Amino acid sequence: MDTEYIKLLFIKHKENSLTHRYITNRDIKPLLDKLKDKLGIKTIGKSVLGKPIYAVKLGKGPKKILMWSQMHGNESTTTKALFDLLNTLIDANNLNYILEVCTLHIIPILNPDGAESYTRVNANGEDLNRDAQALTQPESKVLRAVFNSFKPHFCYNLHGQRTIFGAGKANKSATVSFLAPAQDQACSITSTRKIAMEIIAVMNRALQKEIPDQVGVYDDAFNLNCVGDTFQSQNVPTILFEAGHFHEDYAREKTREYIYTAMLESLNYIANTTVNGNLYEAYFDIPENEKCFFDVIIRNAKVVKGNKLKVEDIAIMYQEKLINGKIEFVPKIEKIKKLTQFYGHKEIDANNHRVLDEFGNPVKVNNENDFVIVNNSKIVLI
User: Fold this and answer.
1) 73 vs 224: CA distance, rounded Å
2) Which is nearest to 321 in space by CA: 329, 332, 333, 310?
3) What are the Cα distances from residue 16, in Å, to 31, 210, 244, 250, 336?
4) What is the pLDDT of residues 68-118, one digit of tens each?
5) Which structural domains are found in the chain, ordered by start?
6) Beta bridge partners of 156
7) Is 377 helix (H, G, I), strand (E, B) or coil?
8) DSSP H helical ranges for 209-290
9) Active site residue ranges
10) Which ranges form a coiled coil (predicted)?
């Protein structure tokens, strides 16, 4: 698809009621109520705390695609993109061919308790993405029941990733990442994985026009407890989507657009192509994610080490905290050492001056500081 056309579709159909990072059932229920006359919407189960797990079904085609988001409750960017996509598919008449060829089964928030508390895990403290075999949690059982009854031909496992990842070792943030999960211990390049890889390669080609060198892939180490690996092992091509960081976009509003672009591009491809995996090799052109970023690095800082003053770098990560119904970013010092192999999304040069906290004390690892003092000047870190 033409990327300029996708941009226009996004602007027209973006769901403006969903913003920033805190997305819960309270946010999506009014949207589902508005869409109920146009889409098949039902409650397919309940969470640990009894919250409804909703599903949306649309399309009437033979190619069946299962999508689920917020399996980790604090990973909401893909949920926003899903509603942008839903608005598009029910309104853009010239995309009717997608719904003629495909049937979509979408679970917008699989882990509503985790979404409410803004945690990765569910209300029992369990990571649903490590429960694919044991199926100890009600949310895991709901997803497996849908998988078994819907019998999808493709699965989209929609997640969000931390700001620490770069697309390779260069100073390029991994704004979007993918994975065609392994389906056996040997990480064999099976026919099923090749199909997932081919679709990822198509999405990458589109994204390179918008965010060149900012797409990565994850290591494919096999873990059958993970949902993607389990579904792939059932010979259903499964794609992991990871919404990452774009420059100064901590609300993940630009990233949602790129996830939307990838989703729409992939659906267009599936609708128009018999995907057989023959074009999978371009997947291996995508660099692997590297943990090479901090949110802020203060370079050339004079700090106390033992009884001496040394010039080091100070690495800061933002802690995401739910405060009064909003996500606040709290800077926390992670490391004080030379960080020549790392990049900061924001970099500050202390020019060999001492770096002090708001009380005039030397900064320390694990300190939370909204600002620091360098050469008698206050520098805000967020």
Assistant:
1) 21
2) 329
3) 11, 22, 20, 17, 41
4) 999 999 999 999 999 999 999 999 788 999 999 999 999 999 999 999 999
5) 3-291 (3.40.630.10), 293-380 (2.30.40.10)
6) 67, 239
7) strand
8) 227-233, 253-272
9) 242
10) none
